[in-house]
């Protein structure tokens, strides 16, 4: 979903153009623009999150509990907020449709590559791990969704008792969900910490956008 944030680039560039005109006329400044943009965008992003989740979550046979479902919604909502903040930063720094679109698409592609989904963090190249992985917002979203799905769950092994993951339940032809998390180096009990990091990333991108607007004003 975060990759689709590139669609917000042209809309924000139009908003930025209007802001530049109004700012030069002394109507409002970068702070008012950033705050209002954030507040106005929240209900739409939340609506997108809920509609997508109501359809895809249950079709995917994820953990069928209310707590797990709303935890999923929280992570996806934070993901979209972070993706929007990234778009704002790139579009403020490079107010060109082609350049902003290319940079946002590249950044999200890089985030997907180092976030843990394509390459597990336990085997990720040291350079990408320390240069990009830890400040990639998709890292924490993916980890949160993985823990939400696999913790406290048990799965049956395939035919012939063939288990894809090493598990203490292998003799019973079952896989403990925690064994899957162990392959990625994920631990339970880090919800608050990861949510805090996500909020910090969102705030960081917004703050950087505000600084760019101030300097370019």
Automatic annotation (TrEMBL):
Family: Belongs to the ABC transporter superfamily. ABCG family. Eye pigment precursor importer (TC 3.A.1.204) subfamily.
Topology of this chain in the membrane: Multi-pass membrane protein
The species this protein was found in: Purpureocillium lilacinum (Paecilomyces lilacinus)
GO cellular-component term (any): membrane
Pfam families xrefs: ABC2_membrane (PF01061)
Residue ranges of domain ABC-2 type transporter transmembrane in the record: 2-150
An example Gene Ontology molecular-function term: ABC-type transporter activity
The keyword Phosphoprotein is assigned to this record: no
InterPro entries, per database record: ABC2_TM, Plant_ABCG
Subcellular locations according to the entry: Membrane
tRNA-binding listed as a keyword: no
Name the record gives this protein: ATP-binding cassette sub-family G member 2
Membrane-spanning parts: 38-60, 72-90, 97-119, 195-215
Entry keyword set: ATP-binding, Membrane, Nucleotide-binding, Transmembrane, Transmembrane helix, Transport
């Amino acid at each position: 979903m975060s990759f689709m944030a590139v669609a917000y680039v042209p809309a924000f560039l139009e908003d930025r153009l209007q802001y530049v005109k109004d700012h030069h006329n002394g109507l409002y400044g970068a702070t008012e623009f950033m705050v209002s943009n954030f507040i106005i965008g929240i209900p739409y992003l939340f609506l997108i999150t809920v509609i997508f989740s109501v359809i895809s979550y249950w079709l995917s046979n994820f953990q069928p509990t209310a707590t797990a479902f709303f935890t999923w919604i929280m992570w996806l909502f934070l993901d979209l907020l972070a993706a929007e903040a990234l778009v704002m930063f790139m579009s403020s720094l490079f107010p060109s449709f082609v350049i902003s679109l290319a940079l946002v698409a590249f950044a999200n592609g890089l985030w997907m590559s180092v976030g843990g989904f394509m390459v597990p963090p336990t085997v990720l190249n040291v350079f990408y791990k320390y240069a990009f992985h830890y400040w990639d917002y998709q890292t924490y979203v993916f980890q949160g969704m993985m823990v939400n799905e696999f913790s406290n769950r048990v799965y049956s092994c395939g035919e012939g008792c063939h288990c894809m993951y090493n598990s203490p339940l292998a003799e019973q032809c079952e896989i403990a969900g925690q064994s899957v998390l162990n392959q990625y180096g994920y631990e339970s009990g880090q919800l608050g910490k990861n949510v805090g990091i996500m909020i910090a990333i969102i705030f960081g991108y917004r703050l950087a956008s505000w600084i760019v607007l101030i300097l370019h004003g």
